[in-house]
Design a protein that fits this description.
single chain, 374 residues, mainly alpha, 70% helix
Length: 374
Amino acid sequence: MKPFSFALFHTHHAPDAQPRAGGASLDVLRFLAASFILLFHYGSTAPVNLGAVMPVFQQGWLATDFFLFLSGYILSRAYGQRLVTSHMRRTHFFLRRFARLWPSHILVLLAFGAFVIASTAAGFAPNHAEKYGAADFVAQAFLVHGWGMMHAESWNTPTWTLSVLLVCYGLFSVYIPYIYKRSLPVMMGLSAVVLLIAHGLALSLAHHAFVDLPFAWGLLRAVPLFLLGNLIERMTVGLRVSKPVFWLGMIGSFLAISGLCLLPRNAIIDSLILVLLGVVLAVSGGVTFHENIVTHRMGRASFALFLTHSLVGAVWFGISPKLIGHFDLNAPAQWCLWGAGVVMAIVVAFLFDALIDKPLSQRVSKLSFVKGGI
């Protein structure tokens, strides 16, 4: 499901003279998170479903939940202090977040609409026409489609997380002063309470596991995870880890999560996985690697990859079956064709970031009502 300066995709300026703890690692982590979402969404179009190759790809909720975790973590790190010390008004903060998200989002959505209309007119109507209704398009255009009023995923599916994050941003600006300087035991206790309440509400209201609540319950899923991301950032604010500890934490967490994914699902297993995702955040934010143009571009392109991969996939994997049938491609050739689709999505993301998203965000940030706030 999915990130991800929308919190997950915060714009970087010129690098500091000294490397920052988490500067490079969090940029790379954001790109890897967006790539996981891409592979999960493209997995069913592979010659053999990726979930059958690696069980972790059957757990698509991992990518979405980690995306929401990471969003809360980075937003707390980037804006918590300014909101707590009143150096930024709540309305200004929210307006800047919305202005960062919406312009590129609406451009991709309009391109998606043009593609569906053109392909339908050419006699290649989409396989699931019910996903491309006018009401869904309007709701998605205004980023309200993840608030529970729409009951099915549609159009640019991953953007439901952008919709719920707008609500998270508004709530964050209100509650962050109350958690910002709490003691470690208090924040640990609060994290446990948030997780317990989230599990309880999911079971009692949605009759479903919390970590992979369906689309209609997006807010119930997003708000606790985003808050937990804030708390993880606060609990680990002074943490510094060596590179060996970082790699040990990352590899150990990945192996443990992969093992837990093989076990029958229950609230305890799900919670353990969330804890391990928290470990990934903590060690990534505490390690210092050299920052360079590559890491910065990966961080920026993560938003573009998140935003554009569904449209690229719709085009590429709409054409692929026809190519496979026409040329009678064998299995290796089909894998090459599928892999080329993954590469194409990444290339498009970097181009979209460089040619559209970055210039557009720079232009929007200079508008008086965004720059000065309200």
